[in-house]
Structure formats: structure tokens, C-alpha cells
Design a protein that fits this description.
Aconitase, domain 3; about 25% helix; 5-stranded parallel β-sheet; about 600 residues; Aconitase, domain 4; alpha/beta; 7-stranded mixed β-sheet; 19 helices
Length: about 600
């Protein structure tokens, strides 16, 4: 078995598992954030459910650790009250990013299982653990029963050949990989990383690469635990009786992908698409208004040290804003003790308490219209970090760009480079392809079609993060497709029973349940896409929203055509009588649909 198969088999009580098999997976640690946490509480209280094991359950307040937003403050308080009643640990606003707390505080360890409302919970792949972001229904189920259903993914083996040139960072390697994979090149797969570079990579570097798994469409990117990782986890793990897990020598992979790291150079992702990565030379000299250093991708002490090395004895460019946010309070304290904050402050930076920062729209890091930002985060979707444009880069490039006032690397900070005042035109990088109910609901429906001919429609496009504090279903409908260019008026035009037809990787991005529930609020009949983001697919199934996998978008289908969907048979009947194939629903999807959602 592969590494993911080994972990899933062990935690589902099976001798072996195979790709496509659906199992009941025991979860060692279950977390809910201030984003999504209040909805988890709501689900549990409305269904009269308790908490299976409070010692394995926690809240992490990392999206808005300042409590500066009224709705976030309200949601945090709801979670605190629930935690008091049930004896649940709260990692409050002074703690930091939940996925990093899971690693550093021993909530997870090699071979363990961890779920959270954070779509980057797959960061746990950095220590050889199973981590998964899920919606509020899944997390409520994990809180209540200690288990979730899960489909065993196929596995891809990644081999990193050679060593990268001196001066390149793990972020450069991750962006180099994204250039090949695009937004869905690993869609639905678990990937395992091997090679000399991977073997020598520190925990920090592994976290950086694993944190971009979601942006490549992967379920998770796993690193077999090194001796360093094993020793680190042994001193921190809550469970003291664990052993690291490794893939079998004869494990079967869907395919093997090789990367020649000798060809890596400093890389940057251009605005709007994390996968639109280019060598820094292509954007060199682009005028920068602000820089953000932090996030779950690059907010650890090693990242801050690299930034400090560039900033020491220098000042940020006139009129530029530099914002630095450590990932956890432990990192914050180390940076303080090592004198890094003094370097940052002398350079002219704003330093905040630990948390997610700009990525979550709840803390420092946001930008305004027409503002150009260099960020060390993992997402730069339109509107994700504000109304401006965001380039993704590593800590050294970000710090150097802050000093120079334009995109550059440390070796070229003092070069005379023509500054570009406008963002260069670009297109997204091409993606490579990877390969019993209480009542019965109709498994055939008819509906009018809306055709959205776009791939990689992310959750920010579907339901913008400025509306995330909304928890009432009836208030979500008006915001459906509110950040998808050309479709902002969709809620006004759509009628109950309408069917959305779209392309690949629909629902890429975050774990927000609202991106599903907004369509339920509108009374949508179904969504038909060529493929879905892994978390979105789970959220839709769990919510009882009919979703169908089919390539009907590749036909001449047009807005207004009426089609008939047969969920069980996996067929779509068009108005002219032609039949288009679809993927038949699995029994678990039929069961959840019939009972009105995962929690019934």
C-alpha cells in the first residue's frame, strides 16, 4: 500500500484499502476554527448531538485573532460557550494558526488523522500524517462520532531529482511544481514526495510545499517522516504509543512524476491564479505597494529569519507598507527573543500577533483597489486578500521587494531596473490532467440550464470571503457567484430547479460551506461539472445538494436548454433526446441525499 492507504487502513480497522473504496475513518484530532466553528456548533445544537471525546476536540481562533470584526467576535464567543459546556480546549486569539498548533502541540503525529474547517489542514502531510479540511457538517460529525466517511484516493509518486541552486527556497520549489500541475494536475490524488532534496528538507520546508497541495487540486501532499520529524513529534505528540508509517516498497501508484530541481530559480505567482507561476525575471521591476510575510505557508521562525537576513540594516521603500505575521505564538516569542522584531521595526514593518492574517480577510494583510502586494501566502485569488493584486513569492523575495519597492530578489535589490507601473497581462497556467434513507427523493430531475464555461471556479468566486460571517441559509442566496466576473446578477436571474453546468475543478479553494449552501438557498436543482475541488465535493454531498460529474460542458449546450438528470444511472438526457454520460452516484451519496444531508 501507499502511505495514504497505510494510514487510512490503520485508522479504519482494515488490513488493506484500495483507491475508490469508501471507509469509516477514525479521527485522532478534530478542530474547528473561528471561521466555520460557529456553524459546527449550530449543527450540533440543532441536531441535539454531543461531543464523542472532548480530549480529541478543539477550537482554533486563527482567522481573526484580533477579534476586530463584530461577526467574528460573536462567532468566537459562541464557540467559547460551547467549549465550556463540553470541556473542549480552545486555542484562543493569542495562539496562532491551528494547523501549525496541531504539529507543534502534538495534536497530530506521523500516521495520525486530523480534520479541521481549514482547507489547508493537509499541511499535516509535512509530518507524514493525514490532514484534511472539511465543511461544518463533516466536522460536526467528527465532533459527535469521532469518525467521518472518506473515499480512498489514488496516489501519485513525486520524485524530486537533483538539488536546487543555492539561494532558492522551498517556496520556489513548490511554485516550480505548480507550474507543471496547474490548479488541477493532482486533482483528487494523494501525492508522496521522494528524492534527496525531500529527504534533507526541514519541517519548515515540508510545510511550505504541503501547504500548496490544495492549490494543485491534491487531497494531500505527504512526506515520509525523516528522523528529524520523528524526533520532533516524539517530544510533542499527545499519543505516546505511535509508530511512523511508510509506504510499502512495492506500493502501487497511479503514476510517477519527476522534477529536475537543478532548473529551479526564484519563482513568483502572478495575480489571480496561484498556479500561474513564472521565473522572477518575467515580473522583475513590477511596482509594489505593500508586502505581506506570514501565513500557514511561510510564517514559521525559519521564514522570519530569512526575511530578517534581507531586512537587517535596511529600510522598506518610501511609501511601501510591510506587514509581518508569525504563524504561532511560539514563533512570535522566538522572533522576539532572537531580536528579529527589532530588525523588522527598524526596517519600518508592522508586526502583528500570530494568526492567518490577510489570507483569511480577518487581520492585517488586506489590500485596497489597485494596490499591488507581494505575499508569502498560498492563495492570490481575485478578492481573496482585498481588492488589489497579489503576487506570491518566498520570504527572501518578499523582503527584497519591500526594500527595493519593486519585485526583485536579494541579489538584485541595488540593480537599476526599469519599474513597471502596471501588472503585466497574463493567462492562467495550463493545467495537466490526472486521471439507507428514511424517505426516498426522486433520483431523476429536470431543469433549465445555466452554462458557465469556466474551469477552476474557486470558492471566493462562488461566495466571497467578505460574507463569511453569514450563518443563516436564507441570507446566502443573494451572494452566489457574487465574485465571478459576468455572473454577479445570477441570483436575480436564477429560479428554483435551475441547473448550473460548468467545467473542471469547480469549487477549488477554501472549505467554506456557504459556497454550497448559497445554491441550496436559491433552490438550485443541481450542479453539473467535469470535476470538483475535493472539499467542495464533500461539502455538497454532505449538504444534500445534487452534484453530478459529467463533461456535458464540452457539447453545444446553451443557457435555457432543459435537461433531465438521472443520478443513479449516470445519464443526462438533452432536449433533442441525446444522452450524455455522467458518473453514477455512489450508494453513500444516495443515502445522504435521501436523508437530507449527512446529519439528517
Amino acid at each position: 500500500m501507499t502511505l495514504i492507504e497505510k494510514i487510512i487502513a490503520a485508522r479504519s480497522g482494515k488490513d488493506n484499502v484500495n483507491p475508490g473504496e469508501i471507509v469509516s475513518l477514525c479521527i485522532d484530532s478534530r478542530a474547528a476554527r473561528d471561521f466555520g466553528g460557529a456553524n459546527v456548533v449550530k449543527q450540533l445544537e440543532e441536531k441535539g448531538l454531543g461531543v464523542e471525546d472532548p480530549s480529541k476536540t478543539c477550537f482554533t481562533f486563527d482567522c481573526n485573532p484580533t477579534g476586530s470584526d463584530q461577526k467574528y467576535a460573536e462567532n468566537q464567543h459562541k464557540c467559547r460557550l460551547f467549549a465550556r459546556r463540553h470541556g473542549i480546549k480552545v486555542y484562543d486569539i493569542n495562539s496562532g494558526i491551528g494547523t501549525h498548533l496541531a504539529v507543534d502541540n502534538g495534536l497530530a503525529w506521523p500516521g495520525s488523522t486530523f480534520v479541521s474547517t481549514d482547507s489547508h489542514a493537509n499541511i499535516l502531510g509535512a509530518i507524514g500524517a493525514f490532514g484534511q479540511g472539511m465543511g461544518d457538517m463533516d466536522i460536526a460529525s467528527a465532533f459527535a462520532y469521532g469518525k467521518v466517511w472518506f473515499k480512498v484516493p489514488g496516489s501519485v509518486k513525486i520524485v524530486l531529482k537533483a538539488m536546487p541552486p543555492e539561494g532558492t527556497e522551498p517556496k520556489d520549489v513548490a511554485l516550480f511544481m505548480m507550474k507543471k500541475y496547474g490548479a488541477n494536475g493532482l486533482l483528487g490524488f494523494s501525492a508522496e514526495v521522494y528524492g534527496e532534496y525531500a529527504d534533507k528538507l526541514s519541517l519548515n520546508g515540508r510545510i511550505t510545499i504541503s501547504s500548496l497541495a490544495t492549490e494543485m487540486g491534491a487531497i494531500i501532499i505527504l512526506f515520509p517522516p525523516s528522523k528529524e520529524i520523528v524526533e520532533y513529534s516524539k517530544t510533542r505528540a499527545r499519543d505516546k504509543n505511535w509508530q511512523p508509517v511508510f509506504a510499502d516498497d512495492n506500493a502501487a501508484y497511479e503514476r510517477t512524476d519527476e522534477f529536475d530541481l537543478s532548473k529551479v530559480s526564484p519563482m513568483v505567482s502572478r495575480p489571480g491564479h496561484p498556479e500561474d507561476t513564472v521565473p522572477i525575471e518575467e515580473v522583475l521591476g513590477t511596482k509594489v505597494d505593500s508586502v505581506f510575510i506570514g501565513s500557514c505557508t511561510n510564517g514559521r521562525i525559519e521564514d522570519l529569519r530569512e526575511a530578517a537576513e534581507v531586512l537587517k540594516g535596511r529600510k522598506v521603500a518610501e511609501g511601501l507598507v510591510l506587514k509581518i505575521v508569525p504563524s504561532t505564538d511560539e514563533v512570535w516569542k522566538k522572533a522576539m527573543d532572537e531580536g528579529l522584531f527589532e530588525i523588522f521595526k527598524k526596517a519600518g514593518a508592522l508586526v502583528s500577533n500570530a494568526g492567518c492574517a490577510g489570507c483569511a480577510a480577518g487581520q492585517v494583510g488586506q489590500n485596497g483597489p489597485d494596490e499591488v502586494t507581494v505575499s508569502t501566502g498560498n492563495r492570490n485569488f481575485s478578492g481573496k486578500q482585498g481588492k488589489g493584486e497579489v503576487y506570491l513569492a518566498g520570504p527572501k523575495v518578499a523582503a527584497a521587494s519591500a526594500v527595493a519597492g519593486f519585485i526583485t530578489d536579494p541579489k538584485r535589490m541595488n540593480d537599476k531596473i526599469g519599474i513597471k507601473s502596471k501588472t503585466p497581462a497574463h493567462k492562467p497556467a495550463a493545467a495537466s490532467t490526472g486521471k439507507s434513507a428514511a424517505s426516498q427523493k426522486p433520483l431523476k430531475i429536470k431543469g433549465r440550464v445555466w452554462v458557465v464555461r469556466k474551469d477552476n471556479i474557486d470558492t471566493d468566486m462562488i461566495f466571497h470571503n467578505r460574507h463569511l460571517a453569514i450563518t443563516k441559509l436564507e441570507e446566502m442566496g443573494p451572494h452566489a457567484f457574487g465574485n465571478l466576473e459576468g455572473w454577479e446578477d445570477f441570483p436575480k436571474k436564477a429560479k428554483p430547479g435551475d441547473i448550473v453546468v460548468t467545467g473542471e475543478n469547480f469549487g477549488a479553494g477554501s472549505s467554506r460551506q456557504q459556497a454550497v449552501d448559497c445554491f441550496k438557498a436559491l433552490g438550485a436543482g443541481a450542479i453539473v461539472a467535469k470535476s470538483y475541488g475535493a472539499i467542495y465535493e464533500r461539502n455538497a454531498i454532505n449538504a444534500g445538494l445534487p452534484i453530478v460529474v459529467s463533461g456535458i460542458i464540452d457539447t453545444d449546450i446553451k443557457d435555457g436548454e432543459e435537461i433531465e438528470l438521472d443520478f443513479a444511472a449516470g445519464t443526462i438526457k438533452r432536449a433533442d433526446g441525446t444522452i450524455v454520460k455522467a458518473t453514477p452516484w455512489a450508494p453513500v451519496q444516495v443515502e445522504i441525499y435521501n436523508r437530507g444531508g449527512l446529519l439528517g
